[in-house]
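One-letter codes give the sequence; the integers encode the fold. A sample entry reads:
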Amino acid sequence: MYRIKIFSDPVSSISSWLNSMSAKGYRLVSVNNFLYKFEKSKERYSYSTQFIGANTVRENKEYQTLLEDSGFKTFRAPLNQGNLAFGKIRLRPYVKGRSKLATTFGDFNREILIVETKGDIPEKLLSSNKDISHQYKVIRNAYIQGSLVMIAFMLFLLIKEKVFAPYKIIVGTVIGIFLMYKVITNHVNYKKYKNLSEIFE
């Protein structure tokens, strides 16, 4: 069985949705962007997610191998839901080390790690509120980068073309609103878990 699903906040929403599908008797088989394949299962499985887009390709491979060697099944999903990409290259200044250039042959469109655990209790991938707040901070910074690139591109077109066609203004505005929405929601989550870490840890 296939399901098409796009999330506005994939890092936290994917796991909740997959766990609800598991409660209905479905086990995840594969993930291809926003297309999820399931099979009927009598066993119960639980799912947890983690943003790993700020790590190097090597770190992510080692992390996945460690989890799989420990008996977990892993999948990868994109942060930008619905972004179909092949042969793309993207600069990601927020990424550690030398993996600042992401390609579809590396970790581009594979920023979210999904971990499957047998049983009712999901594996806890992030051990503290501080870790969770850092995750949302990195995601927020990624969308800030996208917003700045969008602004620079619109200014370039304005200087080059002098006058914008109405559809370009509409498209640019919609994309800009979406990026700002993502920046704000991830900043809110960052502040929420940062405050919790300061109170309880």
